[in-house]
Every structure is written in C-alpha cells, then in structure tokens.
Amino acid sequence: MLMIVVCSSILVRGQEQQEQEEDEFSEDSKVNTNIAIPLSVPLNPIARFVNFGWGVTIGAGYNLSRRNALIGEFMYNRLAISSAALAPLRLALHSRDLSGSGNLYAITANYRYELRGHKMGVYFIGGGGFYYRNANLSREVVTGTATTCTREWLFWGFSCTNGTVSSDQTLANAAVGSFGANGGIGITAKVAEPRYRFYIEARYHYAPATLINTQLIPITFGVRF
After folding, report:
1. Per 3-state DSSP, what percentage of the chain is helix, strand, and coil (rounded to 5)?
2. Rounded CA gap, 157 and 151, in Å?
3. Is 113 left (phi over 0), alpha (psi -120 to 50) or beta?
4. Residues 6+ positions from 2 with CB-CB distance below 8 Å
5. What is the pLDDT of residues 199-222, one digit of tens each?
6. How far, rounded to the nearest angstrom, does the alpha carbon of residue 101 sit from its chain's CA centroid?
7. Distance CA 103, CA 77 (A)
8. Residues 89-126: tens digit of each pLDDT
9. Neighbours of 200 (CB within 10 A)
10. Tally of CB atoms within 10 A around 183
11. Pairing of β 197-207 and β 170-190
12. pTM of the complete model
C-alpha cells in the first residue's frame, strides 16, 4: 500500500513538472500576436471635437526574450463627433440635420518590456508610426461670406483669410496624416491554454498636425497568444 502511494505521488509530481515545463515552453514562443478592443479617451485639442472612440487593434511581432519583444500593430478607431464641432456649420446652414463622423487609423512599430509571472504580469510599451485621421459630414457645406473663422471650421478642413472663413468653399470631408508616437503600460493575466493572456492597457498616442493635433488614450481590452 505504501509503495502504491509513493509511486502515485512520484507520478503526480512528474506530471505537474511536465505540465509546468510545457507551459514555460509554450509561453517562450518566438512569435507573439494580439487582438483587442480599444475604447479611446480624446485629449485636448481634439477633445473639443470628438467625444470618444472605439474600434479594433491587431498586432504581431517577435519575442527577443521572455522580457523583450518587438510588435507591429494596426489600430482603428471610430470617432464620435461632438455637437460643438458641428454647431457653427449648422448655424451657417440654418439646419440641425447636419451630422458627422470620424475615423483614426494607425500603423505602428513598438517595443515591449515585460515582467511576467506564472499567472500575472506587467509591461511597458512604446513606439511610433503613421497616423491618418479623417472626418466626414453627412452632406456638403458651402461657405458664404463674413463667417467668423473658428477652430471648428478648421477641423473640417475649411481655410480662413483675415479671421473669416474663405467664401465659396464646398467640403464634405477632411483628412490629415502624420507620423506620431505612443507609450503606455499594461497588465496581463494568464487564461486557458499556456500562451493565452488577457490584457488591459492604457497607452498615450500623439500625432502632430498643422492645425489640430491627434491626442488620445485608448483603454484596450484584449487577448495575447
């Protein structure tokens, strides 16, 4: 009986050790991928025109070691246009039916430094890339004369001269693209199979523009594998 107990104990310990070694081997894969949903909080100056954003983030990269990794990511955010951004245009048209939408696309290359335990982990991430932002109106807007120029008109791509919006412009959309940078922190929790980790991340993104910079903090919920 004693021999059976001892043998069983040895077998259990051997199995646990093997499972732990398999977990560590699986998590030490050289390839990393991730998919997530970002919920973005705009910062000034773009916060005057956009309430919030949501979308998707996907990425893939190479693990240099257990702590260091290089990651390429694509992020898309659907931007909710604020009423303040539309107010001057609605006033000029004498119509409240005008609406608008916006989008932000970003392709970035990033470095991640991670302190990872068996169950939980924390990491720091930062990098840079190209950011493209556009804004669209539900219908064309034609400018008249003597309309005071404000940042709302500039946000939609209209040009101004001597403090007034240039007349006879017809616009329904505007776009701006530039290189920018990002940096943030996240936490991970191991779930399901060895390589699957749930993560929550807060990252600051900044992309300069001639008139209105892109600045926002996506709070991202996703899975790494």
Report:
1. 20, 55, 25
2. 10
3. beta
4. none
5. 999 999 999 998 899 999 999 999
6. 17
7. 6
8. 998 888 888 999 999 999 999 999 999 888 899 999 99
9. 14
10. 15
11. antiparallel
12. 0.84
